[in-house]
Design brief:
The complex is a heterodimer of chains A (about 190) and B (about 250).
Chain A (H helix, E strand, L loop, with lengths): L2 E4 L6 H10 L4 E4 L2 H5 L3 E4 L5 H10 L2 H4 L7 E4 L1 H6 L2 E2 L4 E2 L7 E4 L8 E6 L16 E6 L1 E2 L6 E6 L3 E8 L2 E4 L7 H12 L2
Parallel strand pairs in A: 1-2, 1-3, 3-4, 4-13, 5-7
Antiparallel strand pairs in A: 5-6, 7-10, 8-9, 11-12, 12-13
Chain B lengths: L4 E9 L2 E6 L2 E5 L3 H11 L4 E5 L4 H17 L4 E4 L5 H9 L4 E4 L1 H5 L2 H10 L4 E10 L3 E6 L4 E6 H11 L3 E6 L11 H10 L4 E4 L5 H9 L5 E4 L1 H4 L5 H10 L7
Parallel strand pairs in B: 1-4, 1-12, 4-5, 5-6, 6-7, 7-10, 10-11, 11-12
Antiparallel strand pairs in B: 1-2, 2-3, 7-8, 8-9
Helix pairs in contact in B: 1-2, 6-7
The chains are: A alpha/beta (about 190), B alpha/beta (about 250).
Chain lengths: ~190, ~250
């Protein structure tokens, strides 16, 4: 399988590469349009701040390329938020692929939402083989509300989208690459699409 | 429900795990990668690795170790010790660390916290605070591995670094560290109430009840311990079972 990870200086690329390596999968890191277009599957990691990440994407013309992709695509954490239309983080216009908006947590609880939290209302195929209330690792200050593209929920304290799917674009707010065996299974499920 | 985190801490010197008892009397407790993998299996929620080597030459070895750890474990981990510049952090994050912790360098140069938060995001910036109580000074922040008293009152400093962009506070009470007499519930609770970011309590864990106390009474979001876990005086599955019975939300 030709698996490509989008390279735009995202912070957690190495962790994603190692997680794939533990599954016995080699991935190519690239920001080249031709390489990404030719991939069987694409992973779009991300940690950090939305407007700087968008600037990095624009600098590589990836803001034009990513919305045109048709193969299975997986955005992780900030990678999920960037797939949406707009983020409240520095009032940033994002890629506009998934018709959802990204909001800041308004809660008395600690922000960032950091640590292991449970998944609910899981939908296949991404969550094939996982149990309801499975724990995964989150670290984020912005979230996507529940909507018609939600394929898993978590609560902090209100329910929000832990994962999204829109056409060929899959996305997780949590970090499957840091979520133990459950996270590995989710990555495997994506690779098996 | 977001769960409370149990965080084993591994002090690293020359690629090996050691533990200082009140920052002295270092003992060797094994290979960090093996220990880390074992903790992940046992149900540790994340890990902290503190590099206590002194020279820049040895720090290069640490980045290689971080890479080795990231390759083998599938839970989050924080690395700290001797981080003085944005370039140090870039190296460690690229090696696969999820968060970095800064301590003395943030005291010398508070803007570093803002620079790191802007560049890499608050979620990967933990500010470690070593604090000590004396009747004359109250709870004060100490720098340089707890050897130098600063002018900062602990709660004020925690507030300040949070405003600068810290995404988490790792609070170690030097009075409690190594005593196994329990966490410093008073200052941990004060800091946890004063800041909007998660607080990891550190120093003094000796029994399972100590963990329950720091979660229930001091509102800590996570609790860290080292020798207690390394020498298997307390096993994480047993601890988590106990905490669950005590009504603490933990991942089991």
């Amino acid at each position: 399988m030709n698996l490509v990870i989008v390279d735009y200086k995202a912070g957690n690329v190495q962790s994603v590469l190692f997680a794939l390596e533990r599954l016995g999968v080699q991935a190519t890191l690239s920001s080249e349009a031709e390489v990404i277009k030719a991939a069987d599957k694409v992973i779009f990691p991300g940690v950090g701040e939305a407007s700087s990440a968008m600037a990095e994407l624009r600098a590589r013309n990836l803001d034009k390329l990513l919305p045109t992709l048709e193969q299975p695509f997986f955005g992780v954490c900030l990678g999920m938020q960037l797939l949406c239309q707009h983020s409240e983080e520095n009032d940033t216009e994002t890629l506009g692929i998934i018709p959802e908006k990204v909001l800041r947590f308004q809660t008395d609880l600690k922000v960032p939402h950091m640590g292991w939290n449970q998944l609910h209302h899981l939908q296949t195929p991404l969550f094939e083989g996982l149990q309801e209330q499975e724990y995964v690792y989150f670290v984020h200050s912005y979230y996507v509300p529940l909507g018609e593209h939600t394929i898993a929920q978590a609560s902090y304290p209100e329910p929000f989208s832990a994962a999204l799917q829109y056409k060929n674009f899959y996305a997780a707010q949590f970090h499957p690459e840091k979520s133990g065996p459950a996270g590995s299974r989710i990555l495997q499920n994506f690779l098996a699409l | 429900m977001l769960t409370k985190r149990i965080v084993p801490c591994l002090d690293i010197k020359n690629g090996r795990c050691v533990k200082g008892i009140q920052f002295e009397n270092i003992r060797d407790a094994g290979d960090p990668v093996q220990l880390a993998a074992w903790y992940a299996e046992q149900g540790a929620d994340e890990l902290v690795f503190l590099d206590i080597t002194a020279t820049n030459e040895e720090r290069k070895t640490f980045a290689a170790l971080v890479r080795d750890i990231a390759r083998h474990i599938d839970i989050p981990f924080t690395v700290g010790g001797g981080i003085g510049a944005v370039a140090d952090v870039e190296l460690l994050l690229q090696a696969g660390a999820d968060k970095v912790s800064v301590n003395s360098s943030a005291i010398r140069h508070p803007k570093l916290v803002a620079e790191l938060a802007n560049r890499f995001g608050s979620q990967c910036v933990t500010v470690a605070i070593d604090t000590k109580y004396t009747e004359a000074t109250g709870w004060k922040v100490y720098s340089r591995a707890g050897t130098v008293e600063t002018e900062h009152a602990t709660v004020d400093w925690a507030r300040k670094v949070t405003e600068l962009g810290a995404g988490e506070i790792l609070l170690t009470s030097m009075n409690n560290d190594g005593t196994k007499a329990g966490f410093a519930l008073d200052i941990t609770g004060e800091v946890a109430r004063a800041v909007s970011v998660p607080v990891i309590a550190s120093g003094g864990a000796g029994t399972m009840q100590h963990f329950a106390d720091v979660f229930h009474q001091a509102s800590a979001d996570a609790a860290l311990a080292a020798s207690l876990f390394h020498f298997r005086e307390l096993e994480i599955p047993v601890l988590k079972g106990f905490l669950k019975e005590q009504g603490v939300d933990v991942r089991v």
